[in-house]
Amino acid sequence: MIPWKSRWAQGRSTRGLVAGGALALALGACSTPAPGRECPKTRAAFHVVLTAEGGASLPSDTTLSVTYGGGSEQYALAAPPAHPAVVFCNSRPDAGTADAAAGEVKTLDCLLWTQSAATVTVEASGYPRLEVGLDPERDDCGITTVDYALVLGEADAG
Fold first, then answer.
1. What string of DSSP letters covers the chain?
2. How far apart, in whole angstroms, are the C-alpha atoms of residue 59 and residue 37?
3. CA distances, 153 to each of 29, 46, 58, 77 (Å)
4. pLDDT single digits (tens) 46-66
5. What pTM value is reported for the model?
C-alpha cells in the first residue's frame, strides 16, 4: 500500500467518525421532553393579533405579509387566500356591536406556522406601514407559540 494513501484514508475515516459523533450528539440534543411529560403535536411559531389604534375597524385593504426562511405568504383582508401554507388568519368584529352587523373587522387573529424567525409587514390605507421581526422560542418539546399584539397606528408594536 502507498504510505500517503494510507494516511489520507485514515485521516478521512477519523474525520468521518468525528463528524458522525457530532451528528449523533446534535440529534441527541434535539428536543426531547422531560421524563413523564408528553409533548403536544407541532405548534404554531407565532400567534399575531392585529388591531387598529383606538379600537377602530381595520381598513378593508389591510394586508399582512409574512417573510420567513421558507419563503413568504400574504393574507389580504379583502380576499383571504383559499389555501394558505403558513399564515392562517381569522377576522372578527366586536361581537354584539353595530360593527358586527356591518361586517367591519376589528381584529385579525393569525397563527403563523413558520417554524423559524419571520418578518411581518402590515399595510393598510390611512396607517403607516408596520414591520416587525418575530423571534421563535423553543422548549424541550420544540417550537412554542409566541404571542405578538400588533396595533396599526402605534410607533412601537410587539
1. --HHHHHHHHHHHHHHHHHHHHHHHHHHTS--PPTT-PPPS---SEEEEEEEGGGPPPPTT-EEEEEETTEEEEEESSS--SS-SSEEEEEEPPTTSHHHHHT---EEEEEE--SS-EEEEEE-TTS--EEEEE--EEETTEEEPEEEEEEET-SS--
2. 44
3. 43, 21, 11, 17
4. 999 999 999 999 999 999 999
5. 0.70
